[in-house]
UniProtKB/TrEMBL annotation:
GO process annotations (BP): immune response
PANTHER family for the chain: INTERFERON-INDUCED PROTEIN 44, VWFA DOMAIN-CONTAINING PROTEIN-RELATED
Domain of life: Eukaryota
InterPro entries according to UniProt: P-loop_NTPase
The organism of origin for this protein: Mugilogobius chulae
Name of this chain's protein: Interferon-induced protein 44-like
């Protein structure tokens, strides 16, 4: 068990910078071909949370690692933290939206509009997108009692349909997960859901590579090292 991302509860997003995480199989071990890139959450207010233009900047590989987000001023070309000549390894190959299952029907019009704008932009760039529905334990008592009930829970089914329709994301791309929050040891049932989500991310990132045409490739795919493969943008919450 590790805790590399700052986590907790606050009125505003605790994640304020663009944070890529290399994943290793063991302490000090080699990285697996997946980099999870965390962003600030979307947030409700005007000039609050991640700006939709910054999502586009990130996807195109223009945001340097550890760049501090400014909700009111998305990154401009030439500004510090702007990577001008982004290559395939700097780009995002699969976008992952993170939504709290118990708050699906409480999402404000503003957040929905922001998410739809982002989704349109990401669609336009041809990047595959999936949605992680988190906190399924908090949302459904049946699931809290036994995580294996996730696929039998009418409530979770309903929430998955709701969020899929609201954002125009196919139901097959809505993945229920429970994060590690109270556990101090690894748990097989928690892992099964999380690893299924990671598997889907990897498959979708792969389809992004397969869709690259020679014209929009800025470097041959064969030059990618394992370490450079598979960047997934995880968030907005
Ligand atoms: N019960 C339960 N709690 C969760 C789950 N996922 C996250 N949490 C808790 O929710 C809180 C917020 O989680 P974070 O991972 O910080 O959420 P975030 O979206 O990254 O938040 P910001 O970085 O602040 O935007 C923490 O206290 C987590 O322990 C889950 O699946 N189940
Ligand atoms: Mg965070």
């Amino acid at each position: 068990m590790t805790s590399r991302a700052i986590t907790g509860t606050a009125g505003k997003s605790l994640t304020v910078q663009f944070s890529p995480y290399n994943i290793t199989t063991a302490k000090g071990g080699p990285p697996v071909p997946l980099i999870l890139c965390d962003t600030m959450g979307l947030e409700e207010g005007t000039d609050a949370g991640l700006h939709s233009n910054d999502v586009a900047n990130i996807c195109r590989g223009h945001v340097e690692d550890h760049h501090l987000f400014s909700p009111s001023a998305p990154l401009q070309e030439g500004a510090p933290g702007y990577r001008k000549d982004a290559t395939l390894k700097d780009k995002i190959h699969c976008v992952v939206y993170v939504v709290d299952a118990s708050r699906v029907s409480l999402m404000s019009q503003k957040i929905l509009d922001k998410l739809r704008t982002i989704r349109r932009k990401v669609n336009h760039m041809g990047v595959p997108q999936i949605l992680l529905m988190t906190k399924i334990d908090e949302a459904c008592p049946l699931v809290e009692k036994d995580l294996k009930n996730v696929y039998h829970s009418d409530y979770i089914q309903k929430k998955a349909r709701e969020v899929s329709e609201a954002l125009g994301i196919p139901l097959s791309c809505v993945v229920p997960v429970k994060n590690y929050c109270t556990e101090t040891q690894l748990n097989l049932e928690v892992d099964v859901l999380l690893l299924s989500a990671v598997e889907l991310m990897m498959n979708y990132a792969e389809s992004f590579f397969e869709n690259q045409t020679p014209e929009n490739l800025d470097e041959p795919l064969s030059l990618r090292t394992d370490q450079e493969a598979g960047r997934s943008l995880v968030h907005p919450d």
